[in-house]
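Per reviewer request, we include the raw input and output of the structure prediction for the construct analysed in the revised manuscript.
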Amino acid sequence: MTDVRTEWWLATLGRTVIWARMCVREAGTAEVFDSDGNTLTYDSEDSARAALMDAEFVALDGLDEDDAETRGFLIDELVPPQAEDDARLRGLMVQQFPEPH
């Protein structure tokens, strides 16, 4: 079985978080599962990263508390969605958070 490394990326609009999951395959190719349920294939991890950054996504593992606060969130709020399969995951890829009190 091929080794796959998974990274979560996010974009924010107000209190809405839009997730993208990037999977990097052992061969160096990458796939991005987006919030529309599409799986986009890239010839390299760098190409996938560039496309995500062009769409104003940031890597979750690169965020610290200050970065999250700048976006209007606590770092602990930013937890990638989980589901048994991609069909179920699709509906969880956009999360709306209530305004803080």
